[in-house]
Amino acid sequence: MKPLDVVGLGEVCIDWTIYVEKFPEIDEKIFVKEYGKFVGGVTANFLVAFSRLGGRAGFLGGVGEDENGRLVFEALNKEKIDLKHLKVWKGRRTALNVVIVDGKGRKCIYQDPFLMYNVPDPEDVTEEYLSKALHVHTTAIKVESAVKAFKVAYKLGLTTSLDLEKHVADYGLEPLKNVLKYTTILMPNKLGIRALTGERDLVKAARKIMKYGPEVVVITRGDKGSIVVTGSGTTSVPAFKVRVVDTTGAGDTFNAAFIYAITVKKWDYEKSMIFANAAAALKCTRPGAQSSPTIEEVREFLRSRKISIL
Ligand SMILES: Nc1ncnc2c1ncn2[C@@H]1O[C@H](COP(=O)(O)OP(=O)(O)OP(=O)(O)O)[C@@H](O)[C@H]1O
Ligand SMILES: [Mg+2]
Q1: pTM > 0.85: yes or no
Q2: Radius of gyration, alpha carbons of the chain
Q3: Does any ligand 1 atom lie closer than 6 A to the CB of residue 227?
Q4: What is the DSSP string of 198-217?
Q5: Does any ligand 1 atom lie closer than 6 A to the CB of residue 122?
Q6: What domains, with CATH codes, occur in the chain?
């Protein structure tokens, strides 16, 4: 048996979060309700969620040589993520994002460019490490490293998934073609797939992008739920209604739960989608991007909603 289920390549950061009642207008002064300092970053959030559900996760990521880097290490280590390949960049700082969350749990994020600079380089992405896993997940925020990881995964016969958000889709289709070519499951949010394809209709957009490689496209639509598009059809699953506190990391939790369900549990798409929507909904009820649930919490949540899939 392989030692890991998934290796995640990508970003980690500190999220300085400010909770407000509503986003301010220009020149307006508003009161803060609460402050939070959390570990965040799309790939790190994914791995924490994956590990809490019971999966075995390893991280190909990077931090600066500073106090925040140590904080990241401690937090991810506590979550039982394999950190043997966490790179500590000499003379660099750990990425620091500023997140504003409103009274409805919606967020605006000011991203630090060090998110990208701290991602390992292609030469740090080794066959030796990827071969320890069944599946490779990335965000392609550093495209050349993602290409290397997915080419190696392809050679080793591993499945792959790509989280695609708007700020990476904005790189354009051309630089991402070599990643898409080796992507098994593409996981954009609705802004990401629209930015990449210029197509508003989500199913049409998914079909358009499948021509470049992905076998499956899973699109998250916030409080509207999610859609999975495959060669043989489309399945749409609604989101759960919950008391939303903070949606930061909801997509990452959804992606982790979906990949866990498909690759470790071998569940079908519909069951995996319901499971992933439930895990993401639970995350939305808690502050911070890495407050995702355990599998017992998801089971209890589904039971409380009278859904018996687990
Ligand atoms: N308000 C909400 N209520 C219930 N579930 C939600 C809500 N917002 C998000 N979710 C769940 O989380 C999933 C992912 O959300 P979304 O599409 O907003 O991801 P995202 O934009 O990638 O977010 P992030 O990058 O912060 O993780 C949705 O498909 C849904 O299952
Ligand atoms: Mg996301």
Answers
A1: yes
A2: 18
A3: no
A4: --SSHHHHHHHHHTTS-SEE
A5: no
A6: 6-304 (3.40.1190.20)
